[in-house]
Specification:
This protein is an all-alpha fold and 296 residues long. It has one domain (7-295). Helices cover 73% and strands 0% of the residues. The protein has 14 helices and no strands. It has helices at residues 7-14, 20-35, 41-68, 90-115, 117-132, 146-153, 156-167, 172-195, 197-203, 208-212, 214-238, 252-255, 257-265, 269-295. Helix 2 runs parallel beside helix 14 (269-295) and helix 3 packs antiparallel against helix 7. The longest helix is centred in the first third of the chain and has 28 residues, at 41-68.
Length: 296
């Protein structure tokens, strides 16, 4: 098998369609800090760079470990995986994973300078979970804990963490808004797991979709969309009533109708690939709408 590690290959391995999960929480945390007169551009940029690097590192680790564990095979219905396809050797992918996580320490150093020990702990735990998501003796994704990891680390931790490195404090609103971002990211993972159900079942990857079935995964996706798109904007917009502009984020729900239809009607891998990409765009749309409304 010939390995061709081109730029296009590495972009593919980074999974750009999923990177909205790293960008959206930072956008939201930045907008909330701006309203509270705590906006700090260098900290925001470092938070964005750090989040993206940790996510890319996690994607590289997932590419490597799913291959060596035998989860990614030629029967895979999802987007091409660089290691499984022979475009990158396992050794090179592992080295790239280490390099990207190491690079994340550069913006992380500045954030630790501003935020202290809490940011150091968050950064180290985030990197560890990125590796342990599919690696190690008890990989989170294989035990059905991936949804919880994504909800927490791409949600409250990311939004409140972004807010914290600017304001040097955390508000309840930032945590609650973070839950919405985490729910959208969980919806992305749910589509991924729904698409990969059969392959995951054969390889022993016990995602929630494998454990509880296709109907459960579809309802999980719907719940994520409705809670993030309606319940949380209603709460932040109407109680205590200081940010009614947050209701603007509810416009993401009508935009999600085609994705919802696809999730509830399709088992086709290619269509679910498109739905996964569409959900990433919905997350970004939500972050922009929420941030614009918060700034009003």
């Amino acid at each position: 098998m010939r390995h061709t590690s081109t730029l296009k290959t590495w972009i593919l391995a980074a999974r750009p369609k999923t990177l909205a999960a790293g960008m959206a929480p930072v956008i939201m945390g930045g907008a909330m800090a701006r309203v509270d007169h705590a906006f700090h551009a260098p900290a925001l940029l470092c938070a964005l760079l750090g989040a993206l690097l940790i996510q890319v590192g996690t994607n590289f680790a997932n590419d490597y470990f799913d291959f060596v564990k035998g989860t990614d095979t030629e029967e895979r219905v999802g987007p091409l995986r660089a290691t499984q396809a022979g475009l990158v050797s396992p050794r090179t992918m592992l080295a790239a994973t280490v390099i990207v996580f190491a690079l994340a320490l550069l913006p992380g150093g500045y954030l630790i300078h501003r935020g202290g020990m809490p940011i150091l702990i968050i950064g180290l735990v985030s990197i560890a979970c990125g590796v342990l998501y599919t690696g190690g003796p008890f990989p989170l994704g294989y035990l059905g804990l991936g949804d919880l990891f994504v909800l927490v680390f791409f949600g409250p931790v990311a939004v409140a963490g972004t807010y914290y490195v600017q304001a040097r404090m955390v508000t309840q609103d930032a945590v609650i808004a973070g839950i919405a971002a985490g729910l959208w990211s969980t919806a992305i993972l749910t589509v991924n797991n729904l698409r990969d159900m059969e392959g995951d079942r054969r390889s022993g990857k016990r995602t929630l979709a494998v454990r509880f079935g296709r109907t459960f995964a579809r309802v999980e996706y719907l719940a994520c969309v409705l809670l993030a798109g309606i319940a949380i904007p209603l709460y932040l917009g109407l109680y205590p009533g200081t940010h009614p502009g947050a209701l603007l984020a509810a416009l993401s729900v009508p935009a999600a109708i085609p994705a919802l239809r696809a999730v509830f009607s399709s088992t086709d891998g290619e269509q679910l690939n498109n739905t996964l990409a569409a959900t990433g765009k919905l997350l970004l749309l939500y972050a922009v709408l929420f941030s614009a409304g918060w700034l009003l």
